[in-house]
Amino acid sequence: MEAKFWINYPQERIEGEMYKYRCSYCKVETTAINGLIENHKKDCVFRKEQEKTFKQTILQKSHIDVNQIRGADETD
Ligand SMILES: [Zn+2]
């Protein structure tokens, strides 16, 4: 699902490793995360924030859908 793909989490370089980066919250390597929110640790601040936003988006969408169904009923 496209909406679950996030790469905008704060990253920091792993000390002593030239090209390795990790999430600065949960310290999981970027290569292990691979852009997927569920690859962050469960208690990762970034993951929690994104999941909150994601749930809100779903709620907003279903609210819109209800309105659209209502609108369709009125026109018929
Ligand atoms: Zn993380």
Draw up the topology in text.
Layout: E1 11-13, E2 21-23, H1 30-33, H2 45-75
Antiparallel strand pairs: 1-2
The chain binds zinc ion.
Task: Quickly describe the structure.
By secondary structure, this protein is mostly helical.
Structure summary, number of beta strands? 2
Overall body shape: rod-shaped
Hetero ligands: zinc ion
Strand content: 5-15%
- How do the SSEs run, as a string of H and E? EEHH
Structural description of this entry:
The chain has 76 residues and is mainly alpha-helical. It has helices spanning 30-33, 45-75; strands spanning 11-13, 21-23. A two-stranded antiparallel ribbon has the order 1-2. The chain is rod-shaped. Residues 9, 23, 25-26, 28, 40, 44, 46-47 line the site of zinc ion.
For this entry, give a set of tags.
76 residues; mainly alpha; 2 helices; 46% helix; rod-shaped; binds zinc ion
